Each structure stands twice: as structure tokens, then as C-alpha cells.
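Notes continue from the previous slide.

Worked example: a multi-chain complex. Inputs as given:
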Amino acid sequence: MTIDGSLAQWRERAHRFEQEIEKAVIGQRRAIRLITISIFTRGHVLLEGDVGVGKTTLLRAVSRALGGEFVRVEGTVDMMPTDLLYHTYLADDGRPRVEPGALLRQADRLSVFFFNEINRARPQVHSLLLRLMAERSVSAFDREYAFPHLQVFADRNMIEREETFELPAAARDRFLMEIAVAAPRDEETRRQLLFDPRFHDPDALVRRVEPGSFDYRAVVDVARAIQEQVTASEALQRYVLRLWTALLDPAGASVSLPDLDVAHLVKGGASPRGLAFLVAAARVRAFLEGRDYLVPEDIREIFIEVMAHRIFVDPIYAMRGDEPVKRLCRAVFDATPTP
Amino acid sequence: MATLFLALLLALPVSCAAAQAATAEIHSERPFGYFVGDLIHAFVDIRAEADADLRPASLPSPGPLTISLDLRDSRLEPIAAAEGRRWRLHLTYQTFYVSLDVRDIKIPGFTLIVARPGGDEPLSVPSWSVGVAPLREVTPTKAQEAVDYLRPDGDPPRIGERERERVTMALAAATLLALLLVARDRAIPPFHSRSVRRFARLARRLGPLEWRPADAAQTIEAMQSLHRAIDATAGRSVLSSDLPAFLDAHPQFAPAEAALRRFFDLSERLFYGDAAARDDDMAEIAAVARALARRERAR
């Protein structure tokens, strides 16, 4: 029942980390919790949300609390993979120079790499990013650069369709979660955001965050320890397998939705890798809740964020965005008995 | 009856067609005693050589024959014969002749076509007559009232009503019962608020187990049954964190909140943690089921 002494300390640090971020970003408790889960799962994150809801401020606060370096890149339609790696310029002597870009210069110190509007960049850039995310390394200047602590955050421009390149399925599958960052609903929070001057200066806001709530270089080991120490009972394993079956064959599991043909909804993506990511993230959630065993709530709490962006639906429903998948996920949970 | 009918048959004179081989003989049920509207049954026996055949198109077809005589039906029946071929042409006429005295009316003849290898030959069936009679006397006895010239209507047949009433009542009762069963099944008013009493059923089942030394498998099974009953009441799978929403939707269980919370904690430790079932767990589960069963009736 009790978590190992050092892990218990890490849980306290994780909570302190969340509290630090909440100093800068209000009304985003769930997004902050999910980011914390992704950090301790060592997974990359897609952010989803309207313009101006504070995604960048949130990430800068995360980066500051986490320690390490923060690099931000804007996706553009003419961006090439080399733009991420090299910095080319004409030197004072008039000769061209090629030097490592911001990414390579601080490879082993880099903790947060934020790719803004990732779908503005071309597929060539996506494939470099895929390598960076999957292997945490890139090749440049005839050598390998390793990014042992790197965590990629990316957000997609969901408004414009012109000059955007949808992320390929394989790239989306590399992201652990897609976290929705929405404007706060609570009236008091909204009032503060609009009328409290401290929320109008993002730099000052981020400075309120105490840097380095914990050592980002230790997260690799802590993440491994969490995965080893949080257990999944036989009942829970059966429950997750039942969920998976219901997701792949909703009609067979008596799942029905009023205006969706559930028998033909899911075309793919509920893969073993996706489910393995889900269990890994659920273990971190259990750790943050102070348990050393998984319960169904751990799975449900993160299910949509981990699974929805990697489930591909029939093209008939694809036009409706991820709403059919989210509804299906909820219906699957409602129909699957526990334990 | 058939014998009587046959006995009444009267063979009419035979008409011979041009070829000696084919003959036609008319038989009628009786040659007299017909009133307006009566059916006149007759048949024509036709004999021909073995290689002959009758042209179907030449057979008389039903329809009006004269102003007061219709052919109602005509049917050809082949008859097995030792030599040559035989047919019996059944004819049913109906007379509409309103006769004022007893007299004969003529039934027109017709011509059949007999097909032979050598060519077609006509076989004429001659006209014949039957006697018709008036329905009433021409000058009846003088009556006081015009209505006295008419015979009164016959009494309608008496039909037993009691039997039908009984059948109707029985069917009505069966229909009502079926409607009630459907209404109960579909929870249509007055059954809309009927509770399935899942917890009462479960509490009854767990009652006897409570006082025995329970083994772990029984405890697990009882716990799962209670989870399923809660799920069925909510219409969805209820996790521990759903408890407040469940109690909001089913306020009758709110007084049992503490018991429910204890149950979910116990279930979590037993199913997902490393706790093992204890001897008194079954009593705890049965107590929760009893508490819920009591509240279930409050609906």
C-alpha cells in the first residue's frame, strides 16, 4: 500500500511542480495534471486549443518548473528539416557558415521542445520530428546527437485549413497524449484573467514559477521506477482487455450510440502500442494519486487523451472531428463492467 | 341423393350429327316444374371415335342466351370409355321467364366442332324445352288489404347468444391480460415506477451466506453481484468516483452513502490492491445489500 520512500518524495515534488505551474496558469488544473502525467511517462504531448488560451504560457511555466532548456519552433510552410538542426548565415568575412541550431547546441540539456503549429510544417519536417520523438536522437554534422531528457510538445492549428499538412497517423501515434487546453469556464477565473493585470504580462507570470521543482535529469529513472512499482491486478488487466475488445468491436460488446453505426466506426489505431501507452500513463496517474496499484479510474481518467488521437474512424465520421471517438470511448466505459 | 338425381334424369331425343360416328345426347334433371329464377341442370353426353377431339372454342360459354335465359355454367368432363371417346358436358341454365301459365320454354341448341384427322365436322346439339309454371294464381281470391296478398316473412333463425358472449368475454379478458403484460414489460404506466428490486433479490441470496465461513471465491462473487446490481440501477458501469453522480441520480440511496463508500473501498482493495478477502467481508457486503434493498422500496 505504501509507496517506496524515495518515490513518495517524488510524488511530493510532482505536486509541488503542479502548484508552481498553477501560480502562472489558472483554471487549467486538469491540463497541468495531464502534463505532469506525460512528463513521468516520458511521453510527448499534442496540445489542442483555440488561439490565446495560454498554451505557450503553460509550456513556458512547465519548462521553467522542470528546469533544463526550452526551445520553441514555429511551424511554417517553407520550413525544411535542416532548419531545425542548422543555423546558416554569412559571417563577417563574407563567407557562408553552418553551425548547430538551438536544438543541437543544447541537446543534452533540452527538456522541453515546443513545436508551435506543427501542421504548418511539411511532411519532411514531420519525419525528422518522428525520429526525434521515437529515438530521442538525430544525425547531424556526421555524428549522432542524443536528447536524453527531451519532451516534445506540439500544438496544431485547428482553425485554418489552407497551407497546413495534417500529421500522418504514424506521427500522431508517437504522441502519448493530446491534451485539450480550453478557456476556463469558471466565472471567477475568467474575471481574474480579464481584469487582473498580472495575467496580462506572460513574462512576469512565468517568472512567478520557482525554477527547477525537481531535477529534470532524474525523471528517466523515476519514470522507470513508477512503471516497475505500480502494479496492475489480474482484475484490472481483465478490465483493460475488455475495454480494448469493446473498442475494437463495440457492437459485440452491446455498445450503441444513437446516430453512429458503431459496428463500422473504428477503422484502426487501437493498437497494442496505444494500449501499452495507456497503461503506462495510468500507472503514473496512480502514483500521483498515492497508490501503488492501478484502479479503473486511472484508466478512465486519461483514456480519451491517450487514445482519441490515435484511433482512426470511418471517413464518413472523420469530418466530425474527434467527437465520435470521444463519444464511443465514453459509451465503451459505460458498457464495460468493473471489476 | 345422387341416385335420386340420376333417376330423375330424362333422356331426351338423340341428335345425330352429319357424321354417324359422333353423337350427342341431352339429359335433363326434369323437363318441367321450373319457376322464375330456378336453375336448370342438364348434361350432354358426347360420343366420338378414338381419333376425334372436341374443339374447346366450340363449347358454349356462360352468358345470356335469350332475354329470359342465362347459361350460368358450362363444364366439360372427359369420361373413360371402352371404345371411342366420351365426354359429358355439364350445363347449368337459369330461367328468368315470368310465366303466367304453365308452358314450355325453349332452350336453344348449339353446335360443337369435332376435330378428326380428316378434318373438322360440326356436331349439332338441338334445342330442347322445359316446362315452366307461374308462381301464383292469375286471379287470386279477393283480399281486404293489399298487404294480405303478400305472404308474411319467415322467422329469422334463432342464434344462441350465450355461447358467443362467453367467448367474447374470455377473449376480452385474454387481451386485457396481454396488454397488462406488455405494459409491465415496457414499463408503461401504471408500471412505470415499478422497481426491479435488484438489491432485495441480492440481499435474500446473500443472507444465508452471511453466517457461514465464506471462502474468498464466494466473497468475490458476491462483490461482483453487488457491483452488477449497482451498474444495472445506474444503467452504466459505476466506478468509485462515480458515486456522487449515482447518488444524485438516485437520491433514494443517499442515506446508504457511507455503506456504499465502504463497499467501494473494500472492492478496490480486494480487486486491485493486494488485500485478501477477510472472513467478515461477506457480512459487510450483505449489510450493504440489505441497506440498499431497504432504500430501494423508497422509490
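Summary box: Confidence is low (pLDDT under 50) at residues 1-19 of chain B. The helical segments of chain B are 2-8, 161-186, 198-210, 216-234, 243-249, 257-271, 281-296.
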